[in-house]
Amino acid sequence: MSEKTFSFNLTQESPFPIGLISNSPWEFCSFEPLIYIYFNILFVIIAYPLYRIIAGFFNWELNDKTPAKHFSDMLALVRYDFIVFVLGGYAATFNWIMILSFYISIFAYGLLAEVPFTKTSLPRWRYWPIGMWNLFITAFCAVLAMAGFHIYLAIRLMEENKYKERDNIFIAWYLGCLLIPLILMILAYIVKQEQNTRILTRCYLKVIRIFKRNHNYQPLPTNENEPTENQQQQQTEEEEEDSDPKPYHEFASIHPHHWQIFYTLAFFTRFNHPVSQAAGGITLAIYTQGIGAYGPDNYLTERINPIQNVIPAET
């Protein structure tokens, strides 16, 4: 009995628009093992300890870390770098321009973070000094300018390909990827509201109670000894109050970090143009600085809910 052989089409046509010339048949991702090794050596294995050493020498702000924490943070960089390397097209754009801009930017950002008015966070924007506002507006305008230039590069890419089949929607796919972080932010907000107010659980229980109330509906009693309609309603309300979901012991809040913002931007610097390659080095550097100096802090943070931990007064 002969064995059947199955043919594999390793160069099958991608359903996505053709963007970069990559090493993968799937155009919005690329991977080349040797370049990936160089990528990790230069941006993790060398960059992480080098920044910690130089920042420690100049007494820059650093979180104290144990050896286990250092190991965990470096592994986090490797994990995040793999995702952005594959989906950000760095197999095709990684070069000396990116490396140079990376090492300049990581130390420039660390030095900038030592300026007194920058020692704050995004959630405290209401209390920012004027210097921080000037810096934020300047950085925001620079990001917008780079975004506009990358949109221009995306349009040029379509023109160079002479709007071949499916290429004429490359710009739609490119900008449409911005919906991914937006969706994640919306989901994080919903999770925060659920943890702090139990809004989803309350809505669910309210719907369940409506169905139960309709299912258990009984006509008004005729006997005077039986409970009246008002008494039944009051009893039902008391039961609903008793069954209300209790809040969680941890209070959730949204705290965006600079490493998350620039890590997101690093996915869009995917063009073989010196400006785009320099922008890739800058975004990777600031994201690496955030994890190297502080760690991969979460977008949603938790603290003990003070309402749940109030000790009742003795009577």
What's the SSE blueprint?
Blueprint: H1 33-45, H2 47-57, H3 67-87, H4 90-93, H5 96-112, H6 130-160, H7 170-176, H8 179-197, H9 199-215, H10 229-242, E1 250-254, H11 258-265, H12 274-293, E2 300-304
Antiparallel strand pairs: 1-2
Helix pairs in contact: 1-3, 2-12, 5-12, 6-7, 11-12
Biased composition (Low complexity): 218-235
Transmembrane segments: 35-60, 80-112, 132-157, 169-191
Region (Disordered): 218-249
What multimeric state do the chains show? Answer: single chain
Return the string of H and E elements.
HHHHHHHHHHEHHE
Model regions low in confidence, pLDDT < 50 over at least 5 residues: 3-26, 310-315
The largest sheet, given as strand count, sense and whether it forms a barrel, is: 2 strands, antiparallel
Proportion of residues in extended strands: under 5%
Please tell me the overall pLDDT.
Answer: 81
Biased composition (Low complexity): 218-235
Keywords: Membrane, Transmembrane, Transmembrane helix
Transmembrane segments: 35-60, 80-112, 132-157, 169-191
Region (Disordered): 218-249
